[in-house]
Amino acid sequence: MELTALGLAPGATEPGGVSFRATPGALARANLQLRTASRLLVRRARFTARAMGELERKAGQLDWDAWLPRDMPVRWRVTSKKSRLYHQKGIAERLAHAAGRAVAAPEEEGAPDDELGGTGAQQLVVVRVLRDELTVSVDASGEHLHRRGYRLATAKAPLRETLAAALVLASAWDPAEPLADPFCGSGTIAIEAAMLARRIPPGLGRGFACERWPGWDGALVPALRAELRAAILPGARAPILASDRDAGAVEAAAGNLERAGVAADVTLRRATISEFAPSAARGALVSNPPWGLRVGEARALRDLYARLGQVLRERAPGWSATLLLPRSPLERATELPWQTAYTTQAGGVAVRMVTRGRDQG
């Protein structure tokens, strides 16, 4: 959906990713504007190798200097499945030797995703080996794209920015109508909604790894930033409401709203779900309510979700609702009909985005 909106045609999909073809300008625009992507990888080479010697010989024929900044360490991340080349660190070392680069902390399968790309001090190369076929990709994003730069304060179990944006998009929210998050935590859903409503690109305030590539047009990203900044709307068209029962969460959200530049677009207050009483007849509730994964919290959670269902039925019958939930069917306690829109992972936990349309119960 996001790629199509940018005029890019989605290609093959795989768990956690989708491919597409892009010019340098489209790649820069994708880095700046995609709200749900973790990072962008550019495929640079694909070849078959069944032994380390063959790997190094074929890798030595690649034009590494056209991809990698000469004065920057390279971080290699290798995964290998169903291949005779199975030693990931050894693969990284052979590739580094072929490229004429030092091995800067080789990554292996299972490395924390937050660390991929690192900072501006290194270039990440991702190598996937499957049935003796190697695919070599260069990270175009740098730091993980969920790092927008506004979230310094967090509440308990903070929601990643990209997942919050995915929830808002999954809700099919119309920015001309109100949006509410009654379990706002550190305010991430409300912030992502406000940025979407005002057309603020999520990557506007940060740099990208591709800007350091040899031969990259240094004027490209600044020109796109200026174009996108000129298209930002002065304010959200409809109210965006954020509330939480926890005072610390509300305080954290206030700081994040200020840093994101959308404090004027979001009404923030300390309140419980029982106090949720929207004045508009139509709108969208988008939230990440408590999951209660600890032992002994089941009854309190059932009561909370039952109250949420009651509030939606009695006070917001014309509102749609989208929630992020773990695999356990917590939504049954609301006594409302729900549909699963998407499934994904959050902090290593399998989660679902569930939706309820307007006037459904």
Protein model, in words:
Helix content is 27%, strand content 23%. By secondary structure, it is α/β, with parallel strands linked by helices. The chain has a 7-stranded mixed beta sheet, with helices on one face. The protein has a 5-stranded mixed beta sheet with strand order 3-7-6-4-5, covered by helices on one side. The protein has a two-stranded antiparallel ribbon with strand order 1-2. The protein is elongated, with a radius of gyration of 23 Å.
Q: Which features characterize this protein?
A:
alpha/beta, VC0802-like, Rossmann fold, 7-stranded mixed β-sheet, 9 helices
Secondary structure elements and their pairing?
Layout (H helix, E strand, L loop, with lengths): L1 H4 L4 E5 L2 E4 L3 H10 L7 E8 L3 H9 L13 E8 L6 H12 L7 E2 L14 E8 L2 E7 L21 H10 L8 E3 L6 H10 L22 H11 L9 E5 L2 H14 L5 E5 L12 E5 L10 H18 L3 E8 L12 E8 L2 E8 L5
Parallel strand pairs: 4-5, 4-6, 8-9, 8-11, 9-10, 11-12
Antiparallel strand pairs: 1-2, 3-7, 6-7, 12-14, 13-14
